[in-house]
From TrEMBL:
Pathway: One-carbon metabolism; tetrahydrofolate interconversion. Homodimer. The gene is folD. Residues 4-119 form the Tetrahydrofolate dehydrogenase/cyclohydrolase catalytic domain. This is Bifunctional protein FolD. It comes from Paenimyroides ceti.
Amino acid sequence: MQLLDGKKISDDIKNEIAEEVSKIKAKGQKVPHLAAVILGNDGASLTYVGSKVKACERVGFESTLVKMSATTSEVELLAKIKELNENDDIDGFIIQLPLPPQINEQKVLMAVDPSKDVDGFHPENFGRMALDMSTFIPATPFGILELLERYNVQTQGKHTVVIGRSHIVGRPMSILMGRKGFPGNSTVTLTHSHTKNISQITTQADIIITALGVPNYLKAEMVKDDVVVIDVGITRVADDSHPKGYVIQGDVDFENVSKKASFITPVPGGVGPMTIAMLLKNTLLARERRAK
Ligand code: GUN
């Protein structure tokens, strides 16, 4: 079994990006600038956004954190998005999800200028992704592709089973694994809450990508020998013995599934850090495109 070490690979990617930033600076050009908008005080969301801002500092990007109250109206948020779209200093920005209930997520995602949509959630970018056109690929799926590529995990002709059809992970992942090229050329099954006899499907899988948010969901008896397992789950589970009062758990029963797997991502330290590295990569790409 080989661990797919997202922490190490994301550090490599961040170092590569920092080198690009040094070159940009040496030429006296503007460094990439990422903005993140967050509504409310959800602990997990604040932690994720904080990590994104910290990662910007580490690679030499500029960053702006826009904190708005949980009671922000849709009109106010749309006005903020318009401001970010028009601010020439901002190369890319993200609206941290989930949003409070008074806000229509689709309306918000549609309002982001596609050339600054480093999350890749705007329908224009999502459509371009499905059509194999150059675009921003959502950071988590992009990070998974990068992990598979850097560990040279074979995907061609393999049966990939994606568990969960979220717009952020499962749906784009199912498209990307079936695209032409590497990592791709895979035969994909997208499973979700209405899928019957899921074990019958997962035991046929060469590659399993779980993005469910149910701790310990994928058990050893649900996988075959030598399976490749990508665990996107990051659920906070209360644990008084831990200083923070919780531990992060993935969707996979790692202890037992890892005994059968050929490659597997740990949680934490697998997909999570890759997401942040790929958001930085998309922001660098946004800057390069805008500089042309
Ligand atoms: N919430 C959970 N994952 C993500 C992500 O990748 N981007 C944004 N904007 N919000 C998220």
